[in-house]
Inverse folding.
């Protein structure tokens, strides 16, 4: 059974940093994509970053580009999201999700990785709160 577990959420001050982890079990990290999504109260869940292990591509939403960095450790089956220069508008529940067949969608249309309907498995989320 595939499971994803997020951790690392906390309360941080604006301008600070946090590192989120997404630990995967029940699979290997070959030819999959892991996406990070977030959902603020009253808003839709939005894709903010993705790493595609099939071609080592990384993707970022404009709202986090230059501040967040996604990376992976295959030996630990873990994907990280390093979040720097945090802003109050980064406050949300952060989810990681797994797409088992990224090669079917990669390059098919702009922003494909942000389509949450493509993802096969989801974690339960971790809360990030940024105070001003």
């Amino acid at each position: 059974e595939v499971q994803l577990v997020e951790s690392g959420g906390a309360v941080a001050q604006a301008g600070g940093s946090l590192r989120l982890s997404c630990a995967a079990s029940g699979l290997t990290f070959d030819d999959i994509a892991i996406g990070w999504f977030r959902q603020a109260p009253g808003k839709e869940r939005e894709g903010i970053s993705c790493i595609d292990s099939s071609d080592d591509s990384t993707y970022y939403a404009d709202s986090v580009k230059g501040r967040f960095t996604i990376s992976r450790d295959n030996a630990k089956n873990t994907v990280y999201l390093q979040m720097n220069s945090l802003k109050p508008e980064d406050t949300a529940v952060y989810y990681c999700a797994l797409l088992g067949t990224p090669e079917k969608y990669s390059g098919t249309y702009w922003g494909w990785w942000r389509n949450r309907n493509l993802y096969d498995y989801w974690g339960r989320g971790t809360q990030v709160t940024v105070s001003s």
Q: What stands out?
A: The first strand starts at residue 3 and ends at 7. The mean pLDDT is 95. The CA atoms of residues 4 and 123 lie 5 Å apart. The radius of gyration is 14 Å.
